[in-house]
Amino acid sequence: MLLSVQDLQVAFRLGRGQRAQAVRGVSFDIDADRSVALVGESGSGKSVTAMSIVQLLPDNAEPRGRILWQGQDLLQATPAQMRALRGRQIACVFQDPMSSLNPVLSVGLQLVEPLRAHLGLSARQARARAEELLAEVGLPEPRRRLAAYPHELSGGQQQRVMIAMALSCEPKLLIADEPTTALDVTIQRQILELLGALKARHRMSLLFISHDLGLVGEIADEVVVMRHGQVRERGAAVRVFDNPQDTYTQALLACRPTLDGPLPARLPVIDAPAASPAPAAPKDADAPVVLEVRALAKSFHLRQGLFGRRDFAAVQGVSFQLRRGHTLGVVGESGSGKTTLGLALLRLLEPSGGEVRFHGRDLATLSERERRALRRRIQIVFQNPYAALNPRFSIRQTLLEPMALHGLGADGAEREERARGLLHKVGLEADALGKYPHEFSGGQRQRIAIARCLSLEPEVLVLDEAVSALDVSVQAQVLNLLRDLQDEFGLAYVFISHDLGVVRFVADEVLVMKDGAVVEQAEAAQVLRAPAHDYTRRLLAAVPRMGQRRPAAS
Fold this sequence. Notes:
By secondary structure, the protein is α/β, with parallel strands linked by helices. The relative contact order is 0.11.
C-alpha cells in the first residue's frame, strides 16, 4: 500500500468560534502503480482532500484522521519532513499553470530549482536534465524553451512544463488537480495521453482530480465520487461507469451532454424533480435573418525585429447567416480564431475586412450614436463569470446600470421591478439584488451575467465558452436556461465552444475553424455524424467517451 487515507476530516476556522466542515470522514487507498480519481462538483472536498495529503492547507484548517504514506502518518509529520517529501516522493500539478509558474523566471530556472534542491545536481547537470524533461513531455525545441518565460507558451505548453517540474525528481505519486479543465479537447487529449504514458514509463501512482466523470474514465483504475465532503461511491472505474450504485453518481453521468445516443429536449439536473419535458419545438427554417456575416476578416500587426512588422490573420473570410431563434455553434482549438470572431461581430475588435449586417444594416456604416444604440441588441457572455462582474457593484447596480444608460424603464422603481423579474427568469431569488458577486458560486454568477445581458432586451447573444468553466451539473442548468430563453424570446445565439457534446445539444448549425479560417460548415447533425474534413474528425476523435479506456500514448 502506497497511500492510505483513513477517516479524514477537515474543518476551517471562520472566526467567532464558527467552523466550516469541508471533508467528512473520507477514506480511500492508492496502491503502487495505480490511478485513482476523485470526482465531484465544486465544493465537494476533492482539492481539500488532496491538499491535506501534502499539507498545503491554509493556516485556519484543522485536519483530523490518518494519512499513511508507506506507513508514516503525514498529519503528524514535521514541516521539515514534508518539505523533503514534497516534490521528491509526492508531486502536484494544478489546474491553472499560470498561477503556479513564476512569471518573472524562465522555464529553465524553474525546472532547475527542484533538481538542485532535492537531487543535489550541479547547475550544468540540472540544466541538461531539465532539457531532457521538456523533451519527455513533448515540448518542441526543448533547449530553446528553457529560456522562454511562461507567458510565451500556450496553455497546453504551460501545463506540460508543470508536468515536467512535477516529474523532475521521479515521484512515486503524482497528484493532478483538474489539470485539463481549461484546455481545448485536443490539448486535453494530449495531456491525458501524456500522463498515462508517463505513469506507465515511471511506474508511478496517480491521484487524478476532476469534476468530469467522462474524462476520468479514460485514465483511472478506481473512482471515488465525493459530494459535500463525503464519499458517495467508490469502486473500479469500469463498474462505476457500467453500473453506478449511488443516485448522485447516476445524476453526474446523466447530466453531461454527449456525442452519442438520442438528443434530449432538456438535460437532467441534479436535485431537480424529474420531469417529462415537452419535445423541443422545431426551428422555423424561414425565420428572419438577424445577423449576416460576409467574408469577415481580422488581422493583427506584430512587430518583427527593430523596425519590421508582419500581419497575422486571426480571422479569414468567415461568412454565415443567423436566423431568429437559431444557434450557430463555433468550434475549434485555441488560436483558431473563435473568440476573435465573436469580438469582431460586436465590433469590440474592429474588423480588417468584410461586413457584419444586423437586420440588413452594415455596422461599419453606422454613426457612433447609432452603434451605441444597436450594441444593446447584440450582447456577449464571457467565459469567466468571476472576471465578468464588477466586484464593487451589487447585483442591483449590475442589472440597473445598463438599463439606465440605455433609457430602458420609466424610472428606478420600474427598472428594479424588471431586475427582479430577470433574476426570477434565470432561477435566482429577488434577495440576490442586495448581494455582491463574491457571495455567489460560479454557476450563479454566470446566471447573473446572462440576466445583465437580458436587461437590454437583446436579439443576439454571443456566448464565448460561457459554460466551459462550470461543473457538469451547473452546466446542465445553464444550458437548459439558454434553451428556455431562446424559446421564450426568440434569441439567436453564436455559441463558441471547444466542447462538441455541448455544441451538439445547443446548435442548429456548426462552423469549424482552424487557423482563422472555416474548414467545415453545415447543419450540426451532419457535421457531428459525418464530418467532411480531417480536422473535424480529429476534434471528434479527441472527445472523451464515457467509460471507454484508451491506451496511453507511447
